[in-house]
Write a structure and sequence with these properties.
- By secondary structure, this protein is mostly beta strands.
- It has 2 domains: 82 residues, Immunoglobulin-like (Sandwich), CATH 2.60.40.10; 226 residues, no CATH class.
- The protein is 2% helix and 34% strand.
- The protein contains 2 helices and 31 strands.
- The strands form 9 sheets. It has an 8-stranded mixed sheet with strand order 21-22-17-16-23-24-30-29, with no helix packed on it. A 5-stranded mixed sheet has the order 13-10-11-12-14, with no helix packed on it. A 4-stranded antiparallel sheet has the order 6-5-8-9, with no helix packed on it.
- β16 and β17 form a beta hairpin.
- The longest helix is centred in the N-terminal third of the chain and has 6 residues.
Amino acid sequence: MSDQFRPQHFVQYGLLLLISSSLLACGGGGGGGGTDSMTAAMAPGAPIMGAVTPGNASASLSFSAPSSNGGASITGYSAICVAGSLNVSATATASPLAVTGLTNGVSYSCSVSATNSVGVGTSSAAVTVTPSAGALALGTEGVLCSVLNSGTQALSYNNAVPGGLATQVNDNLAFNYSWTCNNTLRNLAGNGVPNHVVTGGNFATKLSAQLVSGSVTLIPVAKASSTAVKLPGFALNSVKMDPGTAGTCTNTASSVMSGCNYAGGTGAWRMEAMGDSSASPWKFDFGTDENNAHVQPNGEYHYHGMPTHLIPKLNGASATSMTLVGWAADGFPIYANLGYATASSANSALKEMKGSFRTKTSPDSGRPSTSLFAMGHFQQDWEYVAGSGDLDECNGRTGVTPEFPNGIYHYYITKTYPFIQRCVKGTPAAWANARP
């Protein structure tokens, strides 16, 4: 016990007054044995970094508020960007935070910290940014604005419903797709038939040509917040990306065939089409083929994950270079799983990008037993953990790419959850939440 709280004796008017430590601590009397319920405020925790956008002698740093404000309201944020002896700081009251006065062509290490009435809190994880006189691409104008292809593709798959008899289908379907640009929009027209090998699928409905069209902005703007979407984008071949499913399981599901419905149902637990390595053994079979794709009831082929046979069609050197595979609903590009190890440097080695999601440490209340369905089978099993992978909550990041050497925000299709992103950082086109 410190001296501050030792019983103290005072004599006043000849009386001995004993003031106990509990009275001093509580400021009162009586035999309550009370404790001090007030906790002193502390400096806030570290902000969580998001997209980093280089500009001309500047950088825009997006971030999320700390998980803890220290018990006092956050009054502002400060950033510091360091490159050797160069040291530039800036302040703001919210994300994003603009840092000006940087030197073009110099790589800076930047971090952000929050401030409350106690003081400045812990700095965020450092991010790297290189401002450029060329500045970050303000849009995607001039990139793949004249894409046109057509032909006939041999398709081989099984026509079968889950648990039913399979009929082999060997078909030849015509495919066509085009991407064009006007002053403000990138426009798609196609029939949704894949222009690559289709093997190994068990499709409940035969694959058929569709009428596919859609537009996205040529001038996308990444925000600190994200917007959930059902259809995050289209591949260059006009095949849509649709990573979620309509399938559900009820709280009392005892097997795939008892309590689960691949076509929808009223269950609260949303089934995932693809299994991550962490979810084993995998129980669901949505009949996806080698391209992690299958067919909807209307015959529309769509991707749930990596379009394996499309990638080498688009880029003969896809094993050693980045491959742009499509455009997102907000206008930003979508790449296959390889990206630069250093986001701001095209001279850095290529690496496989990994998402920043993991299964929750314990299942949500009411979930079917994990002994029947391992964690990872349901959409609700997953949580985003910033910094646990290479990408943000929308499977994206800001950096240079072959098509955008000055850098741009862009998405990746990964071999880890969520495979294809379930949200976008820009403003999505109206079709992004259309059905089916």
